[in-house]
Write a structure and sequence with these properties.
Mean pLDDT: 82
Strand order of the largest sheet: 1-4-5-6-3-2-9-10
Shape: elongated
Structural class: alpha+beta
Low-confidence stretches: 3-52, 54-64, 158-162, 436-448
Largest sheet: 8 strands, mixed
Length: about 525
Amino acid sequence: MLMKLVNPRFLICSSKPLFFLSLNPLNFSPFPLRRHIPKRRTLRFRGCYSSCCSRSFSAKATMLNSPPPVHVRDRIDLTDKEKQIFDRLLQVLRHFNLQTQLRVAGGWVRDKLLGKECCDIDIALDNMLGREFCEKVNEYSSSTGEEIHGIGVIQCNPDQSKHLETARMRLFDVWIDFVNLRAEDYCENSRIPTMRFGTAEEDAYRRDLTINSLFYNINTSSVEDFTQRGMADLKSGKIVTPLPPKQTFLDDPLRVLRAIRFGARFGFLLDEELKVAAADEDVKTAIADKISRERIGHEIDLMISGNEPVKAMTYISELQLFWAVFSLPPVVEPSTPEGSERLCVTFMDSSWRLLQLIGSTSFNDDQQRLCLYAALLLPLRNTVYKDKKGKKIPVASHIFRTSLKLKSSDAETVMSLHLATEKFISLIPSIISDENLQILEVNGETETNDNVQPTSRRRIVTGLLLREIKNYWRASLLLALLLYPEDIASNTNKDMELNEQRALYNRVENTILEMGK
């Protein structure tokens, strides 16, 4: 049974839950107030632009230092599940007297050598197609009276740098990819390579990075390093391409983003020649023209959801790739000033450090991810473009929907976070103040109500805001603290500034929770 798979990213094995329980809802019952479309307010950034940028990029010096020593194992220890899978594959070889060499390729080998578990198993075959071998696996299962499994085929798409067919099937409750070893031949007048069966060495050299070019030979139970530097680069913590980086990136520009993602994830150094190639104008053009926006968005999403999102965005900014990735419409109002990408990274850096200080228990994975996106795009929150009907649309919406092709719901949440952030800034003084609140501003409307007690007024306005932003109110509060109050920005002790922000966050959060009781 064959089935065509449109996109392999939707069959990724993960130990994380797909859904999260929402935070405890606050039981607000505010009095009804008239609702108006909110007016957008211009907010001042904390501190001056130059000091803000230099603060973020103080991380640059750290990133240029030698990486910490990397402990790499001498051998790969298989789990019981992996032994079960590999034994079955070897049984298929023996049953049909196949001379095929089975090799696990890429990330699984790298992670196992680093002592990390990995459920992403890709099997490379030296003399047959992945689909053909999957059919052999099912034939063997049928001969032993076992259940056969469906075979998914992910078609090649050369126009989007997806150059070969991949077969996928489930063995012992684990998804396994099967693909043939291949070599790529490029003609000067074509960016689409001619694919052919290749040797293990040819396949290793055509991979994106040396640390991803290692194989684990299932037949011999040994690690193979055909580039002769995969193990060395893994141990020294270097991100290097097996072949000259510019040609590697022009062949498949997505490799630039993968290099950045792995460099940030493992804390490895990007090779100097690689960085020069990544910043090359031809490579930036190839990123914009050759790679689907869905693939770009998927890589960026992995970075933002990873363990070092700020490092990844800093690399993207330093290599002058920010606007190639987060592309803007041709005309925006107001125009983005030079260096605004650094300011975007600065705000993400501030939000990330505050998130770490507050602790992750208040945010689930999706709330943290969208909070970081909202922080990254916070300097662009008042920048708009006109659609075909002349309607003004926030550019952040364009970035999500067009540049990254992420979910529309993500774009809507980030837009809501930006709006709620502005409202929180006006609301914070009244939430933490014991003074009477005589004026209410809700959804852009100012009302005076002398018949309502001050505490009730605060509860009404806060309740309406939380009803609007729902489970993302903590993320909105955190973003507001990046802009409020201004006197925190004048503090030269950044650790003290962070502690003050955390204290204010805790104070506002506790007050809101008390209101909801």
